[in-house]
């Protein structure tokens, strides 16, 4: 199973440029941490990114929660992603027919495809969603991940839904779809010679969950036991009390925890 290979040896198993870059950054910066920057102003978001940028392989955004979103903001984010060496993941969770998602991806206020290296989609509409998004993103070297499982309690993305999502990605080929949002390795390890990236949200060292259904596990549980590649942490890092240095320190703490769990996994 590719889970037992170092990130560096998995680079060559991908053709998509964004997937390769993610693995290269992880290896170079010794980090499997993605920080989810779920704050509501552009300045706050950029400030968090400047604090955590050195510790992460990826910054995850929800551009539609930023009240003063402009393309100047996304340009600054792209600039920081080059300076501090991380990939931008817009957590858009597309969920419509192919034609509509291709417009949502390329147009509107956000023009996501112009600045986000990676985005994601629900599989519920069927394979047309991948086709629609790939028309826009693939020529730009972008990548897509599908939501196969969710961290929230009562999620319907389980069992057969998860399996069929994996099959949909396999059928689409790995030129554009490069992995999954999931809580486990799903079935990816049994498909020979194919490497898929597993990104897991719902990671926290302090809380067990929130009042709205979120459920947290530790980096050790997520990377070590469940076999995920990237841990996604939001409030656990940007929400820490104690000011800017505390946010920076907390990102480093998660980076170290995530990396230790990965190194231990390789020893097995
Ligand atoms: P937090 O660590 O603050 O709970 O944030 C988790 C982030 O990951 C949020 O941005 C949320 O939208 C996202 N997310 C999630 O929590 N669970 C999923 O299954 C999929 C997600 O994208």
From TrEMBL:
Which pathway is this protein assigned to?
Pyrimidine metabolism; UMP biosynthesis via de novo pathway; UMP from orotate: step 2/2
Q: What keywords are assigned to this protein? A: Decarboxylase, Lyase, Pyrimidine biosynthesis
* The keyword Lyase appears for this protein: yes
Q: Give the signal sequence positions.
A: none
Q: Which PROSITE patterns match?
A: OMPDECASE (PS00156)
Cited CDD domains: OMP_decarboxylase_like
From the UniProt record, list the reaction(s) this protein catalyses. Answer: orotidine 5'-phosphate + H(+) = UMP + CO2
Pfam families xref list? OMPdecase (PF00215)
The Orotidine 5'-phosphate decarboxylase domain is annotated at 32-250
- Give its E.C. classification number: 4.1.1.23
InterPro entries per the UniProt record, alphabetical: Aldolase_TIM, OMPdecase, OMPdecase_AS, OMPdeCOase_dom, RibuloseP-bd_barrel
The UniProt family comment states: Belongs to the OMP decarboxylase family.
* Designated name of the protein: Orotidine 5'-phosphate decarboxylase
The protein's organism comes out as Kwoniella shivajii
């Amino acid at each position: 199973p590719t889970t037992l290979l170092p990130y560096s040896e998995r680079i060559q198993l991908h053709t998509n440029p964004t997937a390769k870059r993610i693995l290269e950054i992880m290896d170079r910066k010794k980090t499997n941490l993605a920080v989810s920057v779920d704050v509501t102003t552009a300045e706050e978001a950029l400030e968090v990114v400047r604090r955590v940028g050195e510790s992460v392989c990826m910054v995850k955004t929800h551009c539609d929660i930023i009240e003063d979103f402009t393309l100047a903001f996304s340009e600054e984010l792209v600039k920081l992603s080059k300076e501090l060496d991380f990939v931008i993941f817009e957590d858009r969770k597309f969920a419509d027919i192919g034609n509509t998602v291709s417009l949502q991806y390329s147009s509107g206020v956000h023009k996501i495809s112009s600045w986000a290296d990676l985005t994601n989609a629900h599989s519920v509409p069927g394979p047309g969603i991948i086709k629609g998004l790939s028309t826009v993103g693939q020529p730009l070297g972008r990548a897509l991940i599908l939501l196969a499982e969710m961290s929230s309690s009562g999620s319907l993305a389980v069992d057969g839904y998860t399996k069929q999502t994996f099959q949909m990605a396999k059928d689409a080929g790995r030129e554009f779809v490069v992995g999954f949002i999931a809580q486990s390795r799903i079935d990816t390890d049994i498909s020979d010679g194919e490497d898929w990236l597993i990104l897991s949200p719902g990671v926290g060292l302090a809380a067990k969950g929130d009042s709205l259904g979120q459920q947290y596990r530790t980096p050790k549980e997520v990377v070590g036991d469940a076999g995920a590649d990237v841990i996604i942490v939001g409030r656990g890092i940007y929400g820490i009390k104690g000011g800017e240095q505390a946010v920076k320190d907390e990102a480093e703490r998660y980076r170290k925890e995530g990396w230790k769990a990965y190194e231990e996994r390789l020893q097995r």
